[in-house]
TrEMBL record:
Residues 10-314 form the Enoyl reductase (ER) domain. This is NADPH:quinone reductase-like Zn-dependent oxidoreductase. GO terms for molecular function: oxidoreductase activity. Pfam families: ADH_N, ADH_zinc_N_2.
């Protein structure tokens, strides 16, 4: 099979296409013929090995040669004990534990996958699992009248988070670079902020902040929160995350605010409800661009450099 591989951490130029043996599924696993995979910020982090937690599967060299977690395709074979799926079934899910989506075939655990609805294309289905789970979890507190700010709102997770928060009745402020302001408005954002021109932590205050690209100080985040407000981040440098978990927790408690890291429950139970909303036409799936397997380096750069408006998908030829 053809696969995009790397042997070291770095920028997209460390990637190359190789012929690899087709893997075999073990107990509780299935072999998926991958027809589409979407790019997540976690793929960019795993490619670069930064932040430090992205090296959890290999501190010096990556043990997972093939990246790509969100997959959609057809079951090619099932491992021992698998009864939930059969060859030919159309499935999708977040294969974060085993990765391997940037290839023609990938092995995935049964628990990570679910049957693909007929109303979703493979590209649409591949766009949902990881970004959708983050958006669903991050907007769970949205309610009528809540003032919510979403930082990094023009990317994959943000393209789901803005309309989810709006449907719940929240007043939403989207933050991203200037090239994404109109896109965030089109998603339903009430207000937008260009992160390269204005400091969102000096606006507000907000009842809830969902930070998809945390890199500011704990005290700046606290300043932007209203009394009783909640801040949650879904990624960022290890130093920032540690400060949020330590200094942020104490500072928040002393001032009646809550600062912490967003705990996302991965798996179909989290993203399937969003898929149903998409099928009903309540939430849109915004695919900015599609790439081929040979163009995976360009696809990763498009996301990692902050140019993507919503999701970016790799489709297998």
């Amino acid at each position: 099979m053809r696969a995009v591989v790397r042997d070291r951490y770095g920028l997209p130029d460390v990637l190359r296409v190789e012929e690899l043996p087709v893997p075999s599924p073990g107990p509780g696993q299935v072999l998926v013929r991958v027809l589409a995979t979407s790019i997540n910020l976690s793929d960019w982090e795993g490619l670069r090995g930064s932040p430090a937690y992205a090296r959890i599967n290999g501190p010096r060299r990556p043990r997972q040669r093939v990246l790509g977690s969100d997959i959609a395709g057809r079951i090619e074979a099932v491992g021992p004990g698998v009864t939930a799926f059969a060859p030919g079934d159309e499935v999708y899910g977040d294969n974060l534990a085993l990765m391997g989506g940037f290839a023609e075939y990938a092995v995935a655990p049964v628990k990570a996958l679910v049957h693909k609805p007929a109303g979703l294309s493979f590209a649409q289905a591949a766009s949902l699992p990881q970004s959708g789970a983050i958006a669903v979890t991050g907007t769970a507190l949205a309610r009528p009248g809540l003032r919510m700010l979403i930082n990094g709102a023009g990317g994959g997770s943000g393209s789901f988070a803005i309309p989810l928060a709006k449907r719940a009745g929240a007043h939403v402020t989207g933050v991203d670079n200037g090239g994404k302001l109109e896109f965030m408005r089109s998603l339903g954002a009430d207000e937008v902020i260009d992160c390269r021109q204005d400091d969102f932590t000096r606006t507000g205050p907000y009842d809830a902040i969902l930070d998809l690209v945390a890199h500011r100080s704990v005290f700046a985040y606290r300043r932007a929160l209203a009394p009783g407000g909640r801040y949650r981040c879904a990624g960022g440098p290890v130093r920032t995350l540690l400060r949020i978990l330590t200094v942020g927790t104490v500072a928040g408690l002393l001032t009646g605010r809550r600062l912490g890291v967003l705990v996302v429950r991965q798996g179909p139970a989290t993203f399937e409800p969003l898929a149903r909303q998409c099928l009903a036409g309540d939430i849109g799936i915004h695919i900015d661009r599609t790439f081929t397997l040979d163009e995976v380096p360009e696809a990763l750069a498009h996301v990692g450099e902050g140019r993507a408006l919503g999701k970016v998908v790799v489709e297998m030829g």
